[in-house]
């Protein structure tokens, strides 16, 4: 495993980033469509078998050259964050819906509108309770960062008010207050009609080792 | 959206279930391998473009016949649960690792050993905090059910003790106590070395409408 917070800084031009986003984004979108279709298909077994073989061929094609492990996170020379592999927002990660989170530094908040399909089901027709937790954890972390208090999740408490039907949803989170090294964030998930279905409170903390690292060598990207 | 707890009972033979599991399981595994490889590939853009076109062709093949919406959950005449679409344990769901959860009705507990790869990353090299929440929510729900108190998540509180490196992991949960309609479950996630990385407490409740339904018409599957 890489050292914690070993984010590195990547020298990359805006043009190259745009090219990456277009190429890799289209590939991940294609895999997402395949994943959802493969979940819901009722074609005959011989067609499934044929599809499986063709999928294995494409996997072999892409496996010819890969990075050795997980993608990690890089800070770009342009001041951005390259988190293509993130399980919630990762452009290249077919497991991620992905969420396009909008951070507001003025208010220390983060929000996203998105669609969850059959891949995110728990109870029949509804979003898995754990998926709601997954998305809200990311939203809360981004709200803490937007408010100037980035950190890792220390605690996260969720309250499920009502079931969340699959479909168009939205989520918001905001930095509520700061107590010493703790950033307290509140958030909620809303259904298509705008009704709150899940609320949460998270405490985000920059661990001591990270604070010490920053004290010793302030990040170049600030 | 289907009515809550509209699980239905599916007449299906053990042989047919075994065939489904083999066919659909192999398809989902192939899509999982493709998803992880597509995330980590560094092949040239023209090869990515070629892969994308071939993926779209396979998607079209599988899209010829599909169920109209999410898979839902069915109870089988053999007494099992057919939850192929579940985002954590779903055999057919490429987003699910999937977890093979073992329920112990004697102790009211549930456990799973599994591997999380690059698709589940948050901080560099580590499991996304929200993914830990996703998996623990499912484990806790299954522990409540194993203990004779099935329900939906009412609240879930997580404490992140230390980062969880990607790799071989395990999770356990157990019904701690019952207070009226509330089943209180405790669980934890452990890293490869068996160290606890995340702990949680969840309250699982069978909603009033579900209790009323069961009072009016006890499920045939009991």
Q: Your description of this structure?
A:
- The structure is a homodimer of 222-residue chains.
- Chain A has 222 residues and is α+β, with helices and mostly antiparallel strands.
- Chain A contains four helices and nine strands.
- In chain A, a hairpin with a 4-residue loop joins strand 2 (74-76) and strand 3.
- The first copy, chain A, starts with 8 loop residues before the first strand and ends in a 6-residue tail after the last helix.
- A six-stranded antiparallel sheet of chain A has the order 4-5-7-8-9-6, with helices on one face.
- Chain A has helices spanning 14-40, 45-62, 129-146, 208-216; strands at residues 9-10, 74-76, 81-82, 102-104, 109-116, 152-160, 167-179, 182-190, 196-205.
- At the A-B interface, helix 1, helix 2, helix 3 and strand 6 of A face helix 1, helix 2, helix 3 and strand 6 of B.
- Strand 6 (152-160) of chain A pairs antiparallel with strand 6 of chain B, so a sheet runs across the interface.
């Amino acid at each position: 495993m890489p050292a914690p917070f070993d984010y590195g800084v990547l020298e990359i031009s805006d043009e190259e980033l745009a090219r990456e986003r277009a190429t890799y984004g289209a590939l991940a979108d294609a895999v997402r469509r395949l994943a959802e279709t493969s979940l819901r298909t009722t074609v005959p077994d011989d067609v499934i078998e044929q599809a499986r073989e063709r999928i294995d061929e494409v996997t072999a094609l892409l496996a010819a050259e890969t990075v050795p492990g997980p993608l990690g996170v890089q800070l770009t020379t342009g001041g951005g964050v390259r988190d293509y592999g993130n399980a919630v927002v990762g452009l290249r990660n077919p497991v991620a819906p992905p969420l396009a989170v909008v951070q507001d530094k003025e208010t220390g908040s983060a929000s996203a509108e998105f669609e969850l399909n059959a891949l995110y089901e728990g109870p029949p027709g509804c979003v898995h309770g754990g998926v709601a937790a997954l998305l809200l954890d990311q939203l809360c972390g981004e709200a803490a960062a937007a408010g100037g208090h980035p950190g890792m999740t220390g605690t996260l408490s969720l309250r499920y008010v009502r079931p969340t039907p699959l479909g168009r949803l939205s989520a918001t989170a905001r930095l509520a207050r700061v107590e010493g090294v703790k950033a307290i964030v509140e958030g909620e998930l809303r259904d298509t009609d705008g009704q709150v279905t899940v609320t949460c409170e998270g405490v985000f903390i920059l661990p001591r080792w990270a604070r010490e690292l920053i004290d010793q060598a302030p990040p170049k990207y600030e």
